[in-house]
Amino acid sequence: MKKWIIFAAVCCLCVVVAACGSGNKGNNADSNAASSAVADVVIKASSWEFDQPEYHIKKGQSIKLELIDGVHGVEIEKTNLKLTQNKIKTVNLDAGEYEIKCNIPCGGGHSKMTAKLIVDEA
Ligand SMILES: [Cu+2]
Questions:
Q1: How far apart are the C-alpha atoms of 81 and 74, rounded to whole Å?
Q2: Long-range contacts of range 28-32, CB-CB < 8 Å, 24 or more positions apart?
Q3: Per residue in 41-54, pLDDT tens?
Q4: pLDDT tens sequence across 19-30
């Protein structure tokens, strides 16, 4: 009887350890997915330029700012849309052309950091 109880206790312990192990793996997978989450359009900013002169997007698609070097932000003129590093936002603007500019004073070339966001008909 005593042996059976010890056997049962060891089994329980194994189940708990296995559950914890797989739980941790699950968490790691989740955090990796979050940090490398994919946006439809990625703007890459460095000092002092954006990686493309124009970015095309469709209404309802998502957009993200990645920093290559320096600290920059993105403001889309005449809209409330602002992007900060690695935060994915959905673009719900009407079709048309919008000016993009850096909205964080980032040094000598700050005022040259402009580009276009072109929202295409979905
Ligand atoms: Cu700037």
A1: 8
A2: none
A3: 999 999 999 999 99
A4: 555 544 444 443
- Give the pair of three-digit tokens for residue 37: 């989450």
Pair (18, 71) in one structural domain: no
Same domain, 92 and 57: yes
Number of domains in the chain: 2
Q: How far is the CA of 18 from the centre of ligand 1 (A)?
A: 49
Q: In what order do the strands lie in the sheet with 62-67?
A: 49-50, 41-46, 62-67, 89-90
Statement to judge: residues 49 and 9 lie in one domain: no
- pLDDT value for 122: 78
Give me ligand 1 centre to Cα 77, in Å: 14
Residue 57: count other Cβ atoms within 10 Å of its Cβ: 20
Structural domain boundaries, residue 12: 1-36
> Cα of 59 to ligand 1 centre, how many Å?
26
Element (H, E) at 24: helix 2-35
